[in-house]
Amino acid sequence: MTPSNEAASLRGENSPWETNVIIDESRNRIRERLREELEQVCWALTRILGRQSRWSGFADLSDDPNIRGAKPFRCDIVINAILASQAERWRTLIHEMLHTFSEGYQPLDYMAFRGWEEGVVEQLQRTLRPAVLAELGINLDEAVFTAVETDHEYEEYVRALEEMRESLGEESLRFFSRLLAVPIRDRRQSVFEQGMALPTVRRRAFLGAYSSGDAILKTGTRR
Ligand SMILES: [Zn+2]
Hints:
disordered N terminus; 2 domains; mainly alpha; elongated; binds zinc ion
């Protein structure tokens, strides 16, 4: 501490140095809490999905306002520093953690089939969230999450996949958790083959949902 900082400190004022230490400490506490929460989410998802996560066990905060959550391909998890202290974060923690359970999660396949990954992960997040939070003993009003989800960036992907699922007549958890276990690059073909095994009349309805949905999952938009 410099003499002038010491004087400020004696006057009960925070020096810039002390302020930085306080900010660093609180940031470290948030990061550590986040890591513990992610660990709990990871355990719950492992039990529910019966699959192993590839999460590195490392969590970090980002100040980028464009990032809510991210799962770099090295398998760390990064969460927006402001979101990290809001109740709504749970949906992001579950979403990012689900990527670590996804088969074939690697850059080239992800970029080529982004909708087939983000749509699957996001709809699984919505489907599994109540069970995950119940297992963690967390009681939150669903409105906290639905406000974000009505205008979600992956909404188009979710709807495209939901239309395919409905035409296949498969239950949501079964359909999406099965797809998570299929390598990203093979998901499209896997759903197509499932549809082609349907009786003729239902197959026609499936092909309608599949061709319009596939276009969205490739381009990410109906427009
Ligand atoms: Zn994602």
